[in-house]
Specification:
CATH superfamily: Spore Coat Polysaccharide Biosynthesis Protein SpsA, Chain A
Strand order of the largest sheet: 3-2-1-4-6-5-7
Distance between the termini: 41 Å
Number of helices: 8
Radius of gyration: 16 Å
Largest sheet: 7 strands, mixed
Oligomer: single chain
Order of helices and strands: EHEHEHEHEEHEHHH
CATH architecture: Alpha-Beta Complex
Shape: globular
CATH class: Alpha Beta
Structural class: alpha/beta
Number of strands: 7
Amino acid sequence: MQWTLVIPLKPLSRAKSRLSGTAADGVRPGLALAFAQDTVSAALACPAVSDVAVVTDDGLAARELAALGARIVPDAPAKGLNAALAHGTDVVRDMRPHTPVAALNADLPALRPAELAVVLGAAGEFSRAFLADAAELGTTLLAAGPGTELRPEFGVDSRCRHRSSGAAELLLTDVDSVRQDVDTGDDLRAALALGVGPYTAAVSAGLLIPEP
């Protein structure tokens, strides 16, 4: 099964505010872009992924991610994360109605293509499925098979909300790179320990990340 991934990305100037203790205001937009570049690069290298659609209204991010091979979808609703994902899925399925779609976070800088393939392979066994984040409170991936609505419920406690909505939780081991999103300095430290992609490595090289 070949998947289309839908990746939402808010304007870089407003991204990653919880990293304020790790990265200054002038650094955070570049760090958020680097996370997205490494995420998109790894996703496009995954053998289970046919293409990647990034939903964003940020001009710089659109140019940089399109250069990597992503399709850019303007965030027409401009009503937050879940509306952006629903819109991106609609755009994708207007062109290919029966394609399986998976929403993926844009802040997975340690993402490994092989681990993503394992997750998508497992998701293909269900009409709708999700993977919890490393904190076991949120969600990093939500998948919907052909003919199934995505029905995203990202945000606070999204693991619980996706499970309550009927999506199957993927209880997988050895896919840490797909679960390790980055919202805090501790998250970034964990991603660096896993091994981040080249964009994040370059931007984070000069950061002094406080110990917990």
